[in-house]
Amino acid sequence: MDAGTLMSTAIRSDWYPVHIVRDESEAIERLVHDLDGRRAAIVTDDIVAARHARRLAETLATRGVSVSMTSFPPGEANKSISTAIGLLDWLAGSEVRRRDVVVAVGGGVVIDTVGWVASAYMRGVPYINVPTTLLADVDAALGGKVAVDHDSAKNLIGGFYQPKAVVTNIGYLDTLDDRQLRAGLAEAIKKGIIASPDLFELIESEREQILARDPDTLRRLVHGASAVKCRLIERDPYELDLARPLNLGHTVGHALETVTGYGPVLHGEAVAIGIVTAAQIAERRGLLDRESLCRFVDLLARVELPTSLPGLAVEVDPAAVVAALGQIRKIRDGSLRFVLPTALGEVVIADDVADREIQIALDEFAGSRR
Ligand code: NAD
């Protein structure tokens, strides 16, 4: 036998249920079932604690579940290594053991942070996501991308760690403010553009019911958008392929979040501008017809998402966004990958988009729309 190279193999396959339910009592039934007699360590933010998580913890306790709970201050600034260390300290001082379950109740900030903590604690304890924002329902809660931010870049410290289950209660959206709801819609519209004309048409035709938070329409929306995400990530759960349609709008979106300092522009709002920019570039290249471009921009505008830089709550210089993209280009070995829509439900990936094209696209709608 050759005494040289050995091959060590570690194959792992994960699957988990995504329950989309109407109210908290249904959510409790799913949680009690999926906890399967284990202790639940609920982690949330202070706003969601007051609105929903405290009541959820109390009800679980009345159902015989052993529950502990902690919360941290809300907001992207707290998706940080220091929050994660605080949570690890809390877990270390608790009775949570290897097979107990951490339950993340909140928006994307809670879910990303708690997932990463769960992946690190005792080399990985199971966790369940209970998303409470539309953005988390249709995006952050699915796919096991867990991370905290670093001063130098968003999501810099993280990994892939799949949840044990996702319990999405549409009822939690009742208390979400309008701006956050619209930001979540940007991620749903994106999924329609890249992979599902049906989803896009649902949002077009049921826009008013969605904004009025009609529960049945929201449930159809969340179901449709979640199904698209599950289908797309299944093909490449660990992002080995750099060509990722789900990144539509995120190249410019991330640059926009960076130049505005992660806060004044919500993630979904930045993605909306990113989608318009990508569609604009695609149209100028002759890849997308004018009618489809206008249809995409119109839907974003009709749900009151910003579609141009002047539509944002803060002033942004297009040249600063292009400069921030230059930084991202450097980190990624000189190339920027753009997802460009070519028709409703279809995209191509381009890695040769020039700064000039981006600048023109950012300028194009300036002043003409929100
Ligand atoms: P968020 O978690 O900051 O929540 C937004 C605000 O709404 C917070 O103040 C929160 O306290 C409050 N809130 C949450 N639920 C509420 C409810 N039901 N009622 C009233 N208020 C409520 O923001 P978000 O938009 O949910 O998430 C953004 C984060 O998600 C970003 O950090 C982004 O990077 C991340 N993200 C991750 C993925 C992924 O795949 N892991 C995908 C998309 C976005």
Key structural traits:
alpha/beta, 14 helices, Rossmann fold, 370 residues, Dehydroquinate synthase-like, alpha domain
Please characterize this protein's 3D structure.
The structure is a single chain. This protein has two domains: 158 residues, Rossmann fold (3-Layer(aba) Sandwich); 189 residues, Dehydroquinate synthase-like - alpha domain (Dehydroquinate synthase-like, alpha domain), CATH 1.20.1090.10. It has 14 helices and ten strands. The strands form three sheets. It has a six-stranded parallel sheet, sandwiched between helices. The N and C termini lie far apart (70 Å). It is of the alpha/beta class and 370 residues long. The structure holds nicotinamide-adenine-dinucleotide.
Brief write-up:
By secondary structure, the chain is α/β, with parallel strands linked by helices. Helices cover 48% and strands 15% of the residues. The chain has helices at residues 24-35, 46-62, 81-92, 108-120, 134-140, 178-195, 197-205, 207-211, 215-235, 250-259, 267-284, 290-302, 318-331, 355-364; strands spanning 18-21, 40-45, 67-72, 101-106, 127-131, 145-150, 153-160, 165-169, 338-343, 346-350.
Query: How many domains in all?
Result: 2
CATH topology name of the largest domain, in short, is Dehydroquinate synthase-like, alpha domain
Going by CATH, the homologous superfamily of the largest domain would be: Dehydroquinate synthase-like - alpha domain
Could you estimate the helical fraction of the residues in percent?
40-55%
* Element string (H = helix, E = strand): EHEHEHEHEHEEEHHHHHHHHEEH
Q: Main sheet: which strands, in order across? A: 1-8-5-4-2-3
Q: How many whole angstroms does the radius of gyration measure?
A: 21 Å
Q: How large is the share of residues in beta strands?
A: 15-25%
Mean pLDDT: 94
* Terminal residue distance: 70 Å
If classified by CATH, what would the architecture of the largest domain be? Up-down Bundle
- What structural category characterises the helix and strand content? alpha/beta
Individual helix count: 14
